[in-house]
Amino acid sequence: MDKKGKNVVVIGGGPGGYPCAVLLARSGFDTILVEKRALGGTCLQFGCIPSKTLINAAKRLKDLNDIRNTLMGDIPTIRYADLIKHSREKVENITAGLDGIMKLNGVKVVKGRARFKDRKRVFVEKEDGAEEFSPDYVVIAVGSRARMLPGVPYPHERVLTNIEVLSATTPPEKLIIVGGGAIGCEFASFFSALNIPVTIIEHMSRLLPQEDEDISRELQTIFRKNGISVITGRKVTKTDVSSDSVRITLDDQTVIEGSHILVAIGIAPATDDLGLEDAGIGVDERGYIPVRIPDYQVLKGPEGVYAIGDCISIPGRVHPCFAHVATREGEIVASVISGKPFDPLDYTNIPICTFTLPEVARIGLTEDEAKKITCSAPAHEVLSVKVRYGALGKGISLNHREGFIKIVEHRDKYHRKPIRQIAGAHIIGEGASELIHIIAASRHAEDSIGHMKGILFQHPTWSELIGEALRLLDDEAVHVRGRKP
């Protein structure tokens, strides 16, 4: 493809948009990146990065408390305002790095609000005026925003989303979290580790309802052990917010009082006010932009318009809204526009992690999902095993006994030599977010169970959990007895 004179407008400088812009610029396109705030998107500014800075501090404090009997003097306390300042400094540091990467690669960054004027033109409203572009290609990477609970006044000093939590310099005195997904559970872990009373409410039957049921139950047990009040299977019917308190009423008439409410009920696409209708670009009933895969061209709209990340939907498939997914989609679109070969994203092999204390990670199918798929195939069998952290020497020595790894095996007995695949893996415990990638790397091998059993894991490491679980599938484990301990 002759790229001379070709230009691309990327709308949104988050984890999907900015890598896409860099790769397009490197391929010879005149690339304009439009971002209304700072580069990095929600992930960097008010999500993945600052929240992990806070959770890491809470974890270190928790680890000190775990060995307090061996220490002299008092356990230190966290200066909350300084911790928030520290996290914002990290964000600013990374943001400055991204600004430098854009300049180094020749990406023109335009700070402003982009809107389609028609099918061929993009209008950008800036503080010092406006600018109009007629690009050959457009990549929509506008991400998402927090959904608000109906009837809750927002903005309000007592009503929090991830943005307010990660910028306020004073912690809540008593926190009510509505929403037991990843965001709600991560902040529950953080504030509980600071000895702040936390109540978390989830309308489904368990926390982290997308996880394997065994993982959810374990996390709830750990949360309650740590003093978190966990309420599941209940809906909020009324919210009273005053200048000094919050009062929540549930559908069983239970009343919960706190100093603040954190709303963590999910996300909504940030596709409003983009002028999509003026460009003939369609959205679904929830506001997401349907795209086709593997190239992410919008299903309804002009040729040469692509969409990626949290703002898209894929017909017939649940689209995972995560930063690493958006990044890969952006890389693919850059290859599509540049005419380069690419490997389609395998949505069945995406590691997904929740950074609670302890961490939760998964890849592939839950045990229930695997059984539903194979129930009509008599030659297929689903097996599962669990190995707890407390079975490892490292788990005992570091006092990290909570949690386990669970491996779900799909065994195809039709062939002369049974084909054994890791249908799914689920981990709750120390280092789960790192361990899951070992399994991701081998999961789609022809015989992933046999392939991974051949790996020798260093002792003592958390990775030994994987080896012990694989051996347990064949009743060969040394430190755990029985296939289902």
UniProtKB/TrEMBL annotation:
MF terms in GO: dihydrolipoyl dehydrogenase (NADH) activity; flavin adenine dinucleotide binding
Residues annotated as domain Pyridine nucleotide-disulphide oxidoreductase dimerisation: 350-469
Keywords (A to Z) from UniProt: Disulfide bond, FAD, Flavoprotein, NAD, Oxidoreductase, Redox-active center
Oxidoreductase among keywords: yes
SUPFAM superfamilies: FAD/NAD(P)-binding domain, FAD/NAD-linked reductases, dimerisation (C-terminal) domain
Cofactor (UniProt): FAD
Domain FAD/NAD(P)-binding: 7-330
Pfam families associated with the record: Pyr_redox_2 (PF07992), Pyr_redox_dim (PF02852)
Swiss-Prot/TrEMBL GO biological process terms: 2-oxoglutarate metabolic process
Similarity field: Belongs to the class-I pyridine nucleotide-disulfide oxidoreductase family.
Protein name: Dihydrolipoamide dehydrogenase
Organism the protein comes from: uncultured prokaryote
Taxonomy of the source species: unclassified sequences, environmental samples
